[in-house]
């Protein structure tokens, strides 16, 4: 039995293994997946000396607790939270040494939704189609963590970063999403198109890794016929029959039969990963590049 492993003591509400995802397989019906807050995942990897493609843990709301079988360096980032080692507080947003057998407890998010836990050497579960990411829609990759799960770790390749703490963006008090109209904005009435970018929405509690759902004005369609299923991309804003926009995130389906009124700029999507239910959402139209 290898000593390069983590034992999961408390899995939390939803903790998954994530890396850069598996882009390039949409033609096979395979979503991209990967960390929802990519910059946060990249930062904690840098802090522990991992390469960008190393797999990390993505927690949801109430964190997780793990016990390494050997001494490791860890870093926790993303949503701010209390971090302890055997009950003693340690730094969030910095590299921390965790002795073999000690309990690393990542607490509930004090703001935001998702925290990221990088471990020196990375989470070394078996890759599927080139990625170790858990995909909740297709079921590819490792299953979400459960109490008692044992996760293998890779071998560290670099020293950890020598910083006291790394600045990270705060979770959004208002989520501003820049959107490029189309390709199916002509399926909505002119009034609905105006309402989409002028009326406020809020993040729905029904949001998940597949999509950020919103609450607010229903968008009226100008065309009521059925739209044949067509390809959809990360950030696509699909409007289902209830008229409330849904922003597709990492585990989104690769095709959809509801019209896409706009597409969110990729740079704005990490903030969507940290927007708690009830956060105001504003869609801002920008010109096509």
Structure commentary:
With 289 residues, this protein is mostly beta strands. Helices cover 9% and strands 29% of the residues. It has 3 helices and 20 strands. The protein has helices spanning 38-48, 190-198, 269-273, and strands at 5-10, 16-18, 56-58, 64-68, 72-78, 81-85, 88-90, 96-98, 104-109, 115-119, 150-152, 175-181, 201-203, 211-215, 230-231, 236-238, 246-248, 255-256, 260-264, 280-285. The strands form 4 sheets. A 7-stranded mixed β-barrel has the order 12-19-16-17-14-13-20. Strands 7-6-9-4-1-11 form a 6-stranded antiparallel beta sheet, with no helix packed on it. It has a 5-stranded antiparallel beta sheet with strand order 2-3-10-5-8, covered by helices on one side. A hairpin with a 7-residue loop joins strand 16 and strand 17 (246-248). It is elongated, with a radius of gyration of 20 Å. The N and C termini lie far apart (54 Å). The mean pLDDT is 94.
């Amino acid at each position: 039995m290898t000593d390069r492993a983590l034992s999961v003591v408390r899995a939390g509400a939803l903790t998954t293994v994530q890396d850069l995802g598996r882009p390039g397989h949409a033609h096979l019906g395979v979503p991209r997946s990967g960390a929802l807050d990519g910059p946060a995942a990249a930062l904690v990897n840098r802090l522990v000396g991992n390469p960008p493609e190393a797999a990390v843990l993505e927690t949801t709301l109430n964190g997780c607790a793990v016990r390494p079988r050997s001494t490791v360096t860890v870093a926790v980032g993303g949503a701010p939270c209390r971090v302890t080692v055997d009950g003693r507080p340690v730094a969030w947003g910095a590299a921390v040494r965790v002795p073999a057998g000690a309990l690393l407890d990542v607490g509930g998010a004090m703001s935001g939704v998702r925290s990221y836990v990088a471990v020196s050497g990375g989470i070394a579960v078996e890759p599927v189609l080139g990625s170790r990411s858990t995909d909740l829609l297709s079921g590819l990759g490792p299953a979400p963590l459960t109490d008692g799960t044992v996760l293998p770790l890779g071998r560290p390749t670099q020293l950890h970063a020598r910083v006291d703490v790394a600045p990270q963006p705060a979770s959004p008090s208002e989520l501003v999403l820049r959107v490029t109209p189309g390709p199916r904005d002509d399926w909505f009435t002119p009034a609905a198109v105006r309402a989409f970018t002028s009326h406020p929405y809020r993040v729905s509690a029904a949001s998940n890794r597949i999509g950020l759902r919103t609450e607010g004005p229903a968008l009226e369609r100008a065309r009521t016929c059925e739209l044949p299923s067509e390809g959809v991309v990360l950030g696509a804003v699909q409007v289902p029959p209830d008229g409330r926009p849904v922003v597709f995130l990492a585990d989104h389906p690769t095709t959809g039969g509801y019209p896409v009124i706009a597409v969110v700029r990729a740079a704005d999507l990490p903030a969507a990963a940290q927007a708690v239910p009830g956060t105001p959402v504003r869609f801002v139209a920008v010109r096509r590049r």
